[in-house]
């Protein structure tokens, strides 16, 4: 199936731990994203990569480090987890360019992170 | 920066029509999107408007007025499965790579 897949779907961990979320897309898209959706359901962009190059880096603590080994993969590593990091993290991809208006995002199913 | 406003929740009866409004204030504009998100699931694309006017897709229509910074999503012949959150998102080309900014979403509850 063509899709954006991310793992794990659920992650429960203790404060201070380090964890990673992986994302892969087989849609052939050039651009991938990480979005965070908090308890108020507000979806906010964190990072974006285009062809393995970081193009969007929002005001995110440097405990969050994205890595894109190739254009089909974008992983998110989080160090020293805090309670406030609890959220659903969505990976997404799109086929776009800087001049493109249409930017249809295809989202993964989300990874629910709970920090205790 | 961008400011995107939409109502928090709307309730409607099966078979009825519901209109979800979205207003935005942006330093630039290059398209407005509507996404649907069922509880616990990924957002899925519904519609895209870049020019003024109405775009119709089956039971769903989306309208845009760029001069007013206003859009609405119209859901007709509501079905129970339409109970979901509807997210308005704006692309601002003055931001790097025209990133997509989302509103907080409107939770639509369809009752029998």
Globular, elongated, flat, extended or rod-shaped: what is the shape of chain B?
Answer: globular
**Could you name the ranges of chain B where pLDDT drops below 50 across 5 or more consecutive residues?**
none
- What oligomeric state best describes the polypeptide chains here? heterodimer
* Cα Rg of chain A: 14 Å
The run of helices and strands of chain B is EEEEEEEEEEE
Share in β-strands of chain B: over 45%
How would you sum up the major sheet of chain B? 6 strands, mixed
Ends of chain A: how far apart? 35 Å
- Mean pLDDT score of chain B, rounded? 91
Quickly give the structural class of chain A.
Answer: mainly beta
Shape of chain A: globular
What's the Cα radius of gyration of chain B? 14 Å
Number of helices of chain A: 0
Alpha-beta classification of chain B: mainly beta
Number of strands of chain B: 11
**Low-pLDDT windows of residues of chain A:** none
In short:
The complex is a heterodimer of chains A (116) and B (112). Chain A has 116 residues and is mostly beta strands.
Q: Would you give an account of this structure?
A:
The complex is a heterodimer of chains A (116) and B (112). Chain A is mainly beta and 116 residues long. Helices cover 0% and strands 54% of the residues of chain A. Chain A contains no helices and 11 strands. Chain A is globular, with a radius of gyration of 14 Å. Chain A starts with a strand and ends with a strand. With 112 residues, chain B is mainly beta. Helices cover 0% and strands 57% of the residues of chain B. Chain B has strands at 2-5, 9-13, 18-26, 32-37, 44-49, 53-57, 60-65, 70-75, 84-91, 100-102, 106-111. In chain B, strands 2, 4, 5, 9, 10 and 11 form a 6-stranded mixed beta sheet that branches. A 5-stranded antiparallel beta sheet of chain B has the order 1-3-8-7-6, with no helix packed on it. In chain B, a hairpin with a 6-residue loop joins strand 4 and strand 5. Chains A and B meet through strand 5 and strand 10 of A and strand 4, strand 5, strand 9 and strand 10 of B.
């Amino acid at each position: 199936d063509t899709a954006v897949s991310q793992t794990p779907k659920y992650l429960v961990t203790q404060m201070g731990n380090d964890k990673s979320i992986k994302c892969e897309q087989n849609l052939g898209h050039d651009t991938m994203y990480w979005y965070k959706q908090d308890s108020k359901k507000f979806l906010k962009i964190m990072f974006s990569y285009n062809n393995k190059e970081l193009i969007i880096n929002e005001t995110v603590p440097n405990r969050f480090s994205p890595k894109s080994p190739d254009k089909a993969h974008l992983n998110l590593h989080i160090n020293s987890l805090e309670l406030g990091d609890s959220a659903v993290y969505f990976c997404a991809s799109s086929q776009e360019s800087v001049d493109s208006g249409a930017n249809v995002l295809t989202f993964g199913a989300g990874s629910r992170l709970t920090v205790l | 920066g961008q400011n995107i406003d939409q109502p928090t929740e709307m309730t409607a009866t099966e078979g009825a029509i519901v209109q979800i409004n979205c207003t935005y204030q942006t330093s630039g504009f290059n398209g407005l999107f509507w996404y649907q998100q069922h509880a616990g699931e990924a957002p899925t694309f519904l519609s895209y408007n870049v020019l003024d006017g109405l775009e119709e897709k089956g039971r769903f229509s989306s309208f845009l007025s760029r001069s007013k910074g206003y859009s609405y999503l119209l859901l007709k012949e509501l079905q129970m499965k339409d109970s979901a959150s509807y997210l308005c998102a704006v692309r601002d080309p003055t931001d790097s790579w025209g990133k997509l900014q989302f509103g907080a979403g409107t939770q639509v509850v369809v009752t029998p």
